[in-house]
Design goal:
By secondary structure, the chain is α+β, with helices and mostly antiparallel strands. It has helices spanning 2-29, 40-52, 96-99, 239-252, 267-272, 288-292, 322-329, and strands at 56-66, 73-87, 91-94, 104-108, 114-123, 128-133, 156-161, 169-183, 189-196, 208-210, 216-223, 234-238, 258-259, 262-264, 278-283, 298-300, 304-306, 310-314, 317-318, 337-344, 347-354, 356-357. Helices cover 22% and strands 38% of the residues. The radius of gyration is 30 Å and the shape is elongated.
Length: 359
């Protein structure tokens, strides 16, 4: 009985071994061609880079400086960064801090052709700028625009730029966080910023942050790093902000801001005097605040100041600083009617004001 069981076991093993021999030789002899092989993620990364890299440019700026002991004027390198083609007419989007105070701008395309460029519009409060190639070539490739509101933490992102002058460099990572705030070159807060661990280094500024479809979802603008190099914490201005700002820069050269027509007290003065809200220093004649009956501060005697209206909310949104006030105003457009709540001599007042255009 035991002998029969052993014999049947060996017979089964022999059959299994013969089947393996039948299958394995063909698999063992098939060599994988690395040039044609790619994982799904590799294939996606390669495709996005191949399609998007022709749209990414290298932006260099120079400034004119007079020599100290002569009348000679020299061109001094001012800065360098990245950018991308906005449309095929030769419009380029980059960061404001890449081109700030530049006297001459040069844009280098991915094929190494160089073109002079001029500034079309600047938005230091959003760290964005639009340039125009003076003699744009044909065949410029623009990036498709995505929707940054669709992002979520963990989604794959790709950054293309020119870190340390190394052209057309790709780094890959994920969305690390959403809704961050960073300070713009003008001192204003940029809200809703995308945080990513895709390596962003000096020179990446102004370059595109892309999703897996190759769509623009942000403009790389800053890093957090004690050493100055990538520490895995990079920031990008969301594309939905770019969608709002860039058309205004193209049309007007700046962001059109709806205004009340007031001069506000500084945050330093507000903190020093422990005031809750933003005092109006004065209103300008012919502007909405003046027409609505809002009043500014006035001098009493030689040294005393009597406050007028202190803005405490805009459309129910609390205002405790100039940043709060400006952020609330940015939610509106020229022609919108907003409700401004103020405190004057201890009394709460409300004004419905139609916003006008900044001059």
């Amino acid at each position: 009985m035991i002998k029969q069981l052993i014999a049947r076991t060996f017979a089964g093993l022999a059959l299994l071994f013969s089947q393996l021999l039948f299958v394995l030789p063909s698999q063992a002899t098939d060599t994988v061609d690395y040039l044609s092989f790619a994982t799904d993620d590799e294939a996606n990364t390669t495709e996005v880079f191949s399609n998007a890299s022709p749209s990414v440019v290298y932006v260099t700026s120079t400034a004119l400086r007079r020599q100290m002991f002569s009348l000679n004027v020299m061109e001094i390198p001012q800065g360098a960064g990245s950018g991308f083609v906005w449309d095929d007419s030769g419009l380029i989007v980059t960061n404001y801090h890449v081109v700030a105070r530049a006297n001459r701008l040069t844009v280098t395309l991915s094929d190494q052709r160089e073109f002079e460029a001029q500034v079309v519009g600047l938005a230091p409060e959003r760290d964005l700028a639009v340039l125009r190639l003076l003699d744009p070539p044909e065949g410029l490739v623009e990036l498709p625009l995505g929707d940054s509101s669709e992002l979520s933490v963990g989604r794959k992102v790709l950054a293309i730029g020119n870190p340390f002058g190394l052209d057309t460099t790709l780094t890959v990572g994920v969305v690390s966080a959403l809704g961050r705030e960073i300070q713009s070159p003008s001192g204003r807060q940029i809200r809703g910023v995308i945080q990513t661990d895709a390596a962003i280094n000096p020179g990446n500024s102004g370059g595109p942050l892309l999703n897996s479809l190759g769509q623009l979802i942000g403009v790389n603008t800053a890093i957090y790093s004690p050493s100055g190099a990538s520490a895995g914490i990079g920031f990008a201005i969301p594309v939905n902000t770019v969608r709002e700002v860039v058309p205004q820069l193209i049309a007007y050269g700046k962001i059109l801001r709806p205004i009340l027509g007031i001069e506000r007290a500084s945050d330093q003065w507000i903190r020093r005097n422990n005031i809750e809200g933003v005092p109006i220093v004065r209103t300008y004649r012919g502007f909405p605040a003046d027409g609505a009956g809002m009043i500014g501060a006035s001098r009493v005697g030689r040294n005393d100041i009597m406050l007028g209206d202190i803005i405490t909310s805009v459309d129910g949104r609390e205002v405790r600083s100039n940043e709060d006030f400006l952020s609330a105003m940015e939610k509106h457009r020229v022609g919108d009617t907003v409700t401004i709540t103020t405190v004057r001599a201890g009394k709460t007042l409300s004004f419905d004001v139609e916003l006008t255009e900044s001059q």
